[in-house]
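Exam revision sheet. Question 4 asks you to relate a sequence to its structure. Input first:
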Amino acid sequence: VLLRLAMCALAALFLLVFTHAWDPPFRHRLGEIPKRDLIARVDFERPDPDATNKARDEARRLAVAEYDQNPEPLVQLRGQLMSDVGKLAKAESLDKLDKADAEVWAKFQPPLAPGTPEPTPKEKADQFKQFRDAFAAEGALDALEDKLAEVMAPFEQRGLLDELPPEHDANVEKIFVRPKGSDMVAAQVPVSDVRIVQAADRLQKSLNEKMPSIDVAGRLFAWLRPRLVSTLTLNVPATRAAQDKAAAAVPDVKKHFTKGKDVLAKAGEPLNEDTYPLLKSEYEADVARLTIGAKLQRSLAWLGMFVALYTLAGFYLFRRERRVLDELLRLAALLALFVLCVAAAAVLSQYAWASDVIPLLLFGMIVAIAYQQEMALLLTACVALVIVTSMGHVSGEALALIATAVGAILVLRQVRTRSRLFMVGFCAAAVGFFTTVGVGVLEERAWGPLLREGGTIALWSVIAGSLMTVLLPAVEKIFAVETDLSLIELGDPAHPLLQELIRRAPGTYNHSITVASLAEAAAEAIGARGLLIRVGAYFHDIGKMLKPGYFAENQTRGDNRHDSLVPAMSTLVIIAHVKDGVDLARQNGLPESIIDFIQQHHGTTLVEYFYRQANQKKVQEDPEGGALDESSFRYPGPKPQSKEAGILMLADAVESASRVLKEPTPSRIENLVDDISMKRLLDGQFDECGLTLEEVRRIGESLVKSLTAVYHGRVKYPDQEIA
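Answer key, structure tokens:
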């Protein structure tokens, strides 16, 4: 008992954790159309993707780009300037300049200001002489080179840039500059310091300060200015990495929603990809504010519900299906099915609306197949309650869910064909569709979404029926149950055991066929499983094929092997056919329900014929010794454990006894059936199978009708002669 209680507790705790029962369920879904505006119930924040993207784009725009500086063009430019100055310093006068040097001197001519007259030849000569004399002295050129290096140093270090390139989409006020091919830390400089237009002004000012005269500085600047080129190159990978880093550093921008003020979803509009996440965030904020005490209270309430359901189901199983409690594997399989059903419903409901009806339908159909409809209805109602509570279904959805499952169970009585389960799925689909539509009409919902939801639940129902067809063999094996479909396959006359029985013991085979017909009709008279008892009757005497000659139906006239045996030995041979039949059945993989018929069809009845022989012999040998002990002449049993086994016992007995009736008239058949029925009752053979006196009476009436039909009188034609 403790082990069974522990299994139930473990199942409840698993579902408690799996469904997060301590949190209230989220009650909204995509496509739902609220009847009223859904207003925030708690203050919460939700990331604003648009604002976040905008902030990150701004961070990218403000990130500092990185440029590679190549000072070589400026170094070469400085060297070229010194070369040209050296050439001019060697010339004697302006008039004596050759053409090449004259072109060089032209580079040093600053542009004239607007309105300024062109200088005269003498003025030009004086300007040249003054420029040449500035560098004619010894060491002047070396001093010029040093000063030019000092003037150009900032530009060679920071670089020059004509204009920002088109791919520069970062900060326009400052940049990072790193020497090309160097691992040095990049230096941050203002863009204005490297832009050629603005850098030229600083270059001119620096020349004015460093050069011996303003005129010389102006001419050097005139030579340098048009030859300044960009030395900075945008390092695109490094810049993009910097931009990505800056964007990643921007935290999510959140939008605040105020309790009782902000509308999350408007009435009459379906929840979509915009409004549904808002409701989800509100739910998460609501859950986050729950205290430990509130969560513990919900958990205890859930456990209380499980205790109530277990108690209800436990009392039912104790009174009506005791074998589930007695057999540990059956209870474990049922609990596992219960847990899998709820877990599958919790998972499926996250992906598609009403898809949790699939595991619920499968649960109900499996229990109905493995046990009975009444039990399936009770347990399915318990599972549906757990699913509805954990998923947060509203009343209309819960009603449609339960009605669909009940519809499937009520039409699932017998599974004689594979198409039967498809029909069950379609019946459940019809119930689910009309229930959904009916509830929706009462709730005054729009027809479009209503028909769509009804069609969805109908589709899931058909899918569940199809899945049940695939799962049927596994269900039969796990729960050790045979459906009518498997029984029909098992009862095929081409079965190897039946073929062997025909070959070895044809009389026993004919007897089994007749008993099957009698027992099936009797079973249907009291509402028992006629097909099960018919197949069981086919195999109930297969043990006789090992010693067929010792049984009357296989003996020819005058050939009785028991004449050479003592009654005790004959009894052992007769009784042994039960054990032999069980061994043959297990060797050939027959199901336990059929083996039960083989074991129980004689119960613990007495082998009367040989007992009387032995008793008479004992009395003759020892008149004062008393009656012989019956225990050695009784079958080992057990007594019939089901109504079907009890019916087979009676059918087997009356069929065998009716064969020896000299004139099987209806009255004699009726007396024979009554005598055998009363004898079995008084012997206690029906004590454990649940047959009532009324059912025994109805079984007897059915047997009388069937036997009368078998032994009906024939019309004697006028020209017939008795042989």
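Marking note for examiners. The beta strands are 38-39, 44-47, 65-69, 174-179, 187-190, 232-234, 254-257, 263-265.
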